[in-house]
Amino acid sequence: MEHPDLSRPEFYASSAWGTYYPNRYYFTIAVHKTREAAGLSDTKYDLTVAEQRQLQWENYPAMLHEFLHYMQDLSTMVGQACLFNQVLMKSIFTKYTTPGMSSAASLGNKKDTSFDNDFYNAFMFNRTLEGGGVLITKMHQISKIENSDEAITARAGTKLVTRMFSIPEIHYVEKTGSGDISASVKLGSFYLFECIAHEIDQSVSKRQNHFTAGSNSHKATEYTVGRMVAQFFYPHIEIENIVRLAVMALQSMNCGDAFIQMVNELKENELNGISQEQSVVLIKKKIQQQLRQNEVNFVAQLKEYVRIFQGRTQLEKAFTYLTEVSIELYRERIKDPCFDIEWIYDDKINELLDKIQLCDFLYIFDDTLPLSLDPGFNRDYIGTALQDMDTSVALKAMVAFDHYFSMHYAQATVLVEQKIKDSYCCPFYNCCPLHYRKDHADICLTKPWRIFELQYAADQEYCWYGSGVLETKGLSIPKKKQP
What are phi and psi of 327, to 5 degrees? Predict the structure, then answer.
């Protein structure tokens, strides 16, 4: 069996607009203006309400796009299945940190791809649920879609259980000057997430006269795979119904197959005189029943995550908050499985934001200084909608915890640091104003976990990243010293 690329970053990204990080539950937005143009300066670190609203308006479709990822991630069965596997992997990973408090090094996880390796099985399960990723070539034409069987192994209590997933495989053709290029990808949650967010942000862009050039630049990319698959089976399906079906399909573990079945159900029903709108209502009722039946297990599983991180104050607080948001979203989906989409289509976006708080976000500004003057120092702006600053800080420690995990779970620190990558950079590198960031920029840029060692040896006053490493090691910062 070929060993997977365990270092592959996990995110939903648009280099032009923004990036959502599913295991960190926040997003970044490239605002395409300088810090000064947004209203900040060397002495002014906070945006006024008016300045924030202006930035939100200018980047509204992008922020909505990433926020939709956040809501789908927290309130669907696929999102929760991926979270379950992530928590399992992280609980294993924490056992591999160096003993003692003076070192931030990880001993790495064994690259054991054997049948009974829980870490490997959880990793591969998530890869199957996600399906394909960013397209290597343009998907201009689908030639066929056929099922591909994949074995999934997971632990059920003390036993390992293997079952087969029949995943839709999309075969497509890219026409180039030198001939046709054939390729294939698996239809999983990644393409449905992007389908939902892209179709909605395009709808909002047109409605509010925002920038819409993305419509052409995103054609035949990962953003339009969901639409192309639906139209492959049912050319006359309405775009709004494609989005609704994609949202509901995410309530099935094999979401790609569920999506295609729903599309075909609409097609068959129309032949029998049942409109698309009537069919969507019927499917919604089925999903509502499914969600009601799963509610007790869904809530119990979320509370188990909080229990797993008990004693790690920041992580426990972060997962407690995320659990509360997930339960609230899930119960809204019982009322209407597509409630978020329907509210947006009905121009009730403000009501949606009143109901579900925006997750943390980072505005990325353009550089104005030469590289020699460290243009990234305190350049960007990290925002939160939370009134409880303790919870906001805990969520940032969770971001650091996930980054530390993501950079290390494939190998030990001694090997990680032999080949520095851009992805190693601290997530807060360009929004941090601390003296540690200014005096030790190279560490924060290339191996931020080592900043923990400096802080532990000095005053044990930890930054967000340092606190994430500390919690990984199973300890917590005394409240009076929390960042």
Answer: -65, -40
